[in-house]
Amino acid sequence: MKAHNSMPSPSAASDLRGSEPPGDIDPRLLEVLVCPLTHTALDYDRAAGELISRAARLAYPIRGGVPVMLPEEARALDPAEG
Fold it and tell me: I need a surface site. Which of 14, 23, 30, 80 has the fewest CB within 10 A?
């Protein structure tokens, strides 16, 4: 007799996440998050899935709805990005 696997398949797991884009974040969290280097407010770039610190000139990624607030994981902003 075959054992029943209760773990969802990867495609089924993605269906469980709903329709939120991967970069979506809870708006209440955006109100309290600040740049860990400058302690200034962050701008949310939904399309890029990033939190932008203009003061530090860094873009912190959002992975699976969780902001990664580590400077070593952040992307440096291009001069054209303001």
Answer: 80
Q: Looking at residues 36-46, what average pLDDT do you find?
A: 96
- The first and second tokens of residue 62, run together, are 């959002």
Pair of tokens at residue 74: 């952040």
Fold of 25-81: N-terminal domain of TfIIb (2.20.25)
Q: How many CB atoms lie within 10 A of CB 58?
A: 21
What's the predicted TM-score (pTM) here? 0.70
Helix intervals (H) in 10-63: 10-16, 27-32
Q: What tokens appear for 65 in the block?
A: 């709805």
- As beta bridge partners, residue 29 has none
Query: Domain map of the chain by residue range?
Result: 25-81
